[in-house]
Design goal:
Blueprint lengths: L1 E5 L2 E4 L4 E8 L8 E7 L6 E7 L5 E3 L7 E6 L4 E6 L8 E8 L9 E4 L3 E6 L1
Parallel strand pairs: 2-11
Antiparallel strand pairs: 1-3, 3-8, 4-5, 4-9, 5-6, 7-8, 9-10, 9-11
Length: 122
């Protein structure tokens, strides 16, 4: 049971990246809430955006609202985070996580990916 992230990289400020998260060993029937978190060294992990794959409810942190868009494909058990108008302060390691409660609190999540680095240059 694991999540695999992909799509990170280096981009200039104002640019876009799309991160993907794929479930392996389970489906969204088992864990139906998928959330993206981000973390920089020495800082707490921040919940960025979460989706309830059962009803399509999406939640965004204020820091990314209007710039990021989260989508999901239940048939493929994948989630994509489209990040637009990126800023240097979006530079972090991004993790996806699976759980059963729609919240941006990391303690609610049981399965985590290994993370993917996003770097935004000014």
């Amino acid at each position: 049971v694991q999540l695999v992230e992909s799509g990170g990289g280096l981009v200039q400020a104002g640019g876009s990246l799309t991160l993907s998260c794929a479930a392996s060993g389970f489906t969204f029937d088992d864990y139906f809430v998928i959330c993206w978190f981000r973390q920089a060294p020495g800082r707490d992990r921040e919940g960025v955006s979460c989706v309830g794959t059962d009803d399509g409810t999406v939640d965004y942190a204020d820091s990314v609202k209007g710039r990021f868009r989260l989508s999901h494909d239940n048939a493929k058990s994948t989630v994509a985070l489209e990040m637009n108008s990126l800023k240097p302060e979006d530079t972090d390691i991004y993790f996806c996580a699976a759980g059963r409660i729609l919240t941006r609190s990391e303690s609610a999540y049981d399965v985590w990916g290994q993370g993917t680095q996003v770097t935004v240059s000014s």
